[in-house]
Design brief:
The chain starts with a helix and ends in a 6-residue tail after the last helix. The strands form 3 sheets. Strands 1, 2, 5, 6, 7, 8, 9 and 10 form an 8-stranded antiparallel beta sheet that branches. Strands 3-4 form a two-stranded antiparallel sheet. The protein is rod-shaped. Helices cover 37% and strands 19% of the residues. The N terminus is likely disordered. The chain has 2 domains: 111 residues, no CATH class; 173 residues, no CATH class. By secondary structure, the protein is of the alpha+beta class.
């Protein structure tokens, strides 16, 4: 009876492999539980860092960027759609605060470095001075000063190319290059007569925005206090996602423009957008797939090693049991 109990006790399989496997699985589950918390915390930190950086770089402008909804700043006669360095529908444009327009705003008539394909700063201003209206993102072309002369009459002084100043009398501004002509109801005898000094602005698109904003009636002369910011960078194409999901439609320009959701854009822009979107999603998905495959391989290897240890223990148990039967005295 004692020998049988002793042999049974000796033949009992060890539990070390089982404990190791259970501990490994427990650690694995704990890692999976904290992975979501880690990812969410990391994403929030990244968002806070990006927002803080943008707020610092933009000088307090909020929001620090806008999504371009119209074709007014595109260059359909000069460049390909989607070209980086120009403003197209769906581009995310970053803004920097303007505190002193006289110093901070560089005009198109002054020439110099190119900004989004042409000289002069692209400014964000409140349409007609009402910030409840849509913010307009157009190029600052020139400045028009209204001067009251000692004799009581009014003189209009328009800055133009090569440092020239063109003066107009009390009859007002008649200047076809900016659209102040008969096509918009102005004549040499009865021209454009603003009541205050300000900036003349215009979209770059020679097709949809052939006239200045003021001649075309888009906005009155831009008072310096209406200017909130100027553009200084962009993320091309990715704003199309916001335009596609918004509740109202963007402009349907014509042939070659296609609609996705509520957004119309040229085929080239949609091609770039979906190509970037594919890369953005494909790379993390591929990494997750590779990690999952690697984790699965590690799990299978751990199971194989555990089974191999158990088989070795069982074989050892059988061998000792067999030896105990052949030599009963060895179990004492």
């Amino acid at each position: 009876m004692f020998r049988k109990r002793a042999s049974t006790q000796e033949a009992r399989p060890p539990r070390e492999p089982g404990r190791l496997l259970r501990a490994w699985r427990k650690a694995r589950r704990a890692t999976d539980r904290f992975r979501l918390l880690r990812d969410v915390t990391g994403a929030l930190l990244i968002v806070l860092i990006v927002v803080g950086t943008l707020a610092t770089a933009t000088g307090g402008t909020w929001p620090p960027f806008v999504v371009i909804e119209s074709e007014s700043m595109m260059h359909p006669l000069e460049r390909h759609y989607g070209e980086i360095g120009t403003i197209d529908v769906g581009d995310i444009v970053f803004l920097r605060a303007v505190h002193d327009p006289a110093k901070d705003v560089h005009l198109w008539v002054d020439g110099g470095d190119s900004h989004y394909g042409r000289p002069g700063d692209v400014i964000a201003y409140a349409q007609d001075g009402d910030r409840a209206n849509t913010t307009i993102i157009h190029r600052a072309i020139t400045r028009l000063d209204v001067v009251r002369l000692p004799n009581g009459s009014t003189e209009y002084r328009l800055r133009w190319l090569e440092g020239k100043t063109i003066k107009f009398g009390a009859e007002g501004v008649y200047f076809p290059p900016l659209g102040f002509d008969e096509s918009t109801g102005y004549t040499p005898q009865d021209g454009y007569k603003p009541l205050y000094s300000g900036y003349v602005t215009k979209g770059d698109n020679a097709v949809s925005n052939a006239l200045s904003d003021q001649a075309g009636g888009l906005s009155r002369l831009v008072d310096p206090s209406w200017i909130d910011a100027k553009a200084y960078g962009e993320v091309p194409w990715m704003g199309l996602a916001k335009l596609a999901l918004q509740w109202y439609k963007t402009n349907e320009v014509g042939q070659g423009w296609y609609r996705v959701g509520n957004a119309y854009a040229p085929l080239e822009l949609w091609t770039c957008f979906f190509a970037v979107l594919t890369i953005v999603f494909a790379v993390p998905l591929s990494l997750d797939t590779w990690r999952a495959h690697r984790a699965s391989a590690e799990t299978r290897r751990a199971h194989r090693e555990a089974r191999a240890v158990l088989r070795a223990r069982k074989e050892e148990q059988k061998r000792r049991a067999k030896e105990a039967k052949l030599d009963p005295s060895s179990s004492r």
